[in-house]
What we know:
Order of helices and strands: HHHEEHHHHHHHHHHEHHHHHEHEEHHH
Strand order of the largest sheet: 4-3-5-6
Radius of gyration: 22 Å
Shape: globular
Number of helices: 22
Helix content: 40-55%
Distance between the termini: 51 Å
Strand content: 5-15%
Number of strands: 6
Amino acid sequence: MSPTNVENFAAFAQGNVATPPPAEVVSETKRILLDALGCGLAATSSEYGRVGIDYGRILGASGNEATIIGQRERTSVHGAAFANSELITALDLAPINLPAHVAPYALPLTLALGESRRLSGARLLSAVAVCLEMSFRLSKSMDDLRDVTKDGVPNTPRVFGYSSMVFGLTAAASMMKDMSETATREALGIAGGTSPVNSLRPWQMHVPITTVKYGLGGGLVMTALTAAYMAELGHRGNTLMLDDEEFGYPGLVGSKRWDPSGLSERLGTEWRFPAATSFKPYTQTRTSHATLDTVIQVIHENDIKVEEIDSIVAYGEAWSAEVPVYVNRVIDKPYDAQFSFAHGISVAAHRIRPGKDWQDPAVVFDPSVLALMSRVEWRAHPDWGSAVNGDPLARPARVELSARGKTFVGERSYPKGSSSPDPATYTTTEELLEKFRHNADGVLSPQAAEAAIEAVMGLEHIEDLSTFAALLRPEGGAR
Length: 479
């Protein structure tokens, strides 16, 4: 009898405990982790980052096992994992790996377990890479938010979300806990049966938008940790969860499409997640990034001042053109600005440095930024469907900016931050280092930030993750 997909994933995870992934996979994993850590540092003063920290402390009580990023004291494994996942997601600035943001959950879980168990950096890198690869393959087997018909018409799923990451997260936890392959199988089966619901569509369609986005990140991490602990303690899981379309995971999360052929195909010999990694310059939904790039290009090339702008007509992803969360113009909290197309375009036109500064309340509520929003119109790009049918990574954008009695036009096919036929869209390691330094500013000293960078880029050589985690605490933190 052929092994189940859960069994194949368990074997894949355990195989990477014994033998690390290829060097190029490790290298991309380090870039992803560096970016995620910086996003966590940047969010320590944000409203919802603080909520995550506070609840992590409640979970941790008086624990002294693991670090909360940017905080002096330590807490429990569960408390740190929860808090750090909420921190890294708080500004919507973290790297993207299919199905969506994965590192904001994988890093907190593995770092907390690794620090508490004094494991090596190499083990953490292997566990995160396994999580990223499993998550990528599962996302490709089910519905996609950007699905289109053969005619190029958006075919957005009615039920959608990113809960399938729970399998990769659970595998990563099992690796960090030195669990056997048999126990890992059970953990994956438990994870499938206790998975959160796919709640992205309600989040998109209802305003004011929920501040837990399409699911509480810390909650997803807790589910994965619980699955691993329960299997270790003797619970049995459903190892057919990824083989039964009707009564298994696809039916559980409401996916209309189920193609499991890619789950195990060349698993362990072909790593697919690195090529699809995207890094975010802006604290805005990735959906808008190509359009934001185009606005900035038009503004700079023509030296246009905000007061000169009569109107901006922006064209972007067709599936999102009428989604309430994106067309919302009521900005009550900085969080609302992360998903408002009109607000993002207005900030871009004001030449604010891309990155965490876009979430500064002084920027979010700047009267000039809010005023320009009324002169912004968002439309579906007429060629979006055909472009995506030709290349799923395509995100065609067009901007028509009226000023000085003229209409200035800009166009592009791919956003900055992703690999594409245009080499300029690739985010270099030097660009990631500068982003990290900016994100760490105000939390770590310049010297501490450089020490953290050096440690991440040489993470495979670190023998004890507790020494690495100490670098993420401001001077004077707990030891």
